[in-house]
């Protein structure tokens, strides 16, 4: 998920995606601690996707870059 995709979504969609990504991250961490993880790069990708969503949500609430909250 790149920044353009994140910015094109509404706040509700972003919060829903963030919840799903956090669940996936938990499962990946749990799986990597109990067994060999086949895709360790996925953990990094999920963490970065969550960070992008958090950044866009923060930009919208603080009014940075001319972004307004989308309903």
From TrEMBL:
Q: Which CDD domains match?
A: Ribosomal_L29_HIP
Q: Which Gene3D superfamilies match?
A: 1.10.287.310
* One GO CC term, this protein: cytosolic large ribosomal subunit
One GO molecular function term of this record is: structural constituent of ribosome
Q: What keywords appear on the UniProt entry?
A: Ribonucleoprotein, Ribosomal protein
- Name the GO terms of the biological process aspect: translation
* InterPro entries with a match to the protein in the record: Ribosomal_protein_uL29, Ribosomal_uL29, Ribosomal_uL29_sf
Which NCBIfam families does the UniProt record give?
L29 (TIGR00012)
Family designation? Belongs to the universal ribosomal protein uL29 family.
Q: What is this protein called?
A: Large ribosomal subunit protein uL29
Gene that this polypeptide is encoded by: rpmC
């Amino acid at each position: 998920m790149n920044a353009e995709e994140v910015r094109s979504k509404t706040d509700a969609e972003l919060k829903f995606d963030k919840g799903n990504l956090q669940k996936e991250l938990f499962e990946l961490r749990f799986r990597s601690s109990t067994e060999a993880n086949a895709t360790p790069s996925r953990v990094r990708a999920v963490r970065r996707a969550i960070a992008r969503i958090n950044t866009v949500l923060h930009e919208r609430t603080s009014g940075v870059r001319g972004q307004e909250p989308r309903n």
